[in-house]
Amino acid sequence: MKKRLALILPAALLLSAFVIAGSGRSIDGDIPAPAAIGSTIEDFTLPDVDGTNRTLASLKGKNGSVILFIAVQCPVSNAYNERMEQLAQDFKAKGINVIGINANATEDAGAVKAHAAQNKLSFVILKDPGNKIADRLGAKVTPEAYFLDANNKLLYHGRIDNSKDPAGVNSSELRDALNLVLSGKPVEKTNATSFGCTIKRG
Amino acid sequence: MLTRALLVVSVGLSILLSSLAAPAQKRTRRPAKSKVAAVRSPVVTEIKTDALVALLNRQSEKPLLVNFWATWCDPCRDEFPDLVKIDADYRKLGLDFVTVSLDDVPDIKTTVPEFLQKMKATMPAYLLNVPDPDPLIKAVDPTWQGDLPATILYTTNGQVAYKHFGRVNPGELRSAIDKVIGARN
Predict the structure, then answer these.
(1) ipTM
(2) 3-state SS track over B13-25
(3) What mean pLDDT value characterizes chain B?
(4) Which of B145, B164, B177 to mutate to test the interface with A (most CBs of A within 10 A)?
């Protein structure tokens, strides 16, 4: 009897711990927490919109990369199309490459390709089937940015700037982070949030 | 003198009659007006970070349910009918429920009330008007990445009893509300 209790009690405690932990958020509780600032992001391989496999190692610039989770149908992401393209153009010459990732299960490679052409997005956009990389980075919304240095160390995570409406922009955290690193200084603000469309996980 | 008195009386009477006639006119118009009111768009109030944080941290006799949403957010629109039903079922049991829209400010008079009207939503509706949403997001929950919808239930002491980011599970939300309402009674 004692032996049985000794088995049941820890099991019950474990179960109740799960119940308590799960009482806050359940449906999306399995989405991992965002990658920590300062952590190194392992290289990954994802198909581009033409189905060709590309690696982070082959796409990043000599001074680093910016991974942008973007969407075809999200109005917030779409409000940033021009700003994302401008960012890609401004920093490509400075050795930081922008890489787009579409992790929405509801948007296929064809739609992503057509959307990029329509909105004149010249940077490479990858599809993330099964949200493998979105999960690894803990990405939740579009648009959402991750700035990695040349060694794939995460230096900034969050929004592009403070306002969906370009007229309301008065803080550009992502650009500030890139410029600081390019001038050899540490990133001052490593995280800033804004509202966005939830990534439609498959 | 008499003529003067008569004049004063007649003027007084006409003022009195016209003042009585005015409400009478209003009364006759009222049914038409209330008909208009029944289909009029719900009022959406602008709110700033400080006022919203104060609302969320309030001490009250009633628990508070808050739903952050936007008309451009698909899962927000999808879950709204469930939220309207929850409001209808629990408001009478002592639940306060407010919605906070993250739409653009000009939408306060167009898409936001239009959607609320379509949903037959009657809970108090706010629209966040801030230049930078980051302080609010972090004040609400430091782990929140700004994904919508977000639904948070506060106890009467302003403690978070339940939170969910993404489309809510109505059964789960209802049982969380049952618990806080049960604890209150």
Answers:
(1) 0.80
(2) HHHHHHHHHHHHH
(3) 84
(4) B145
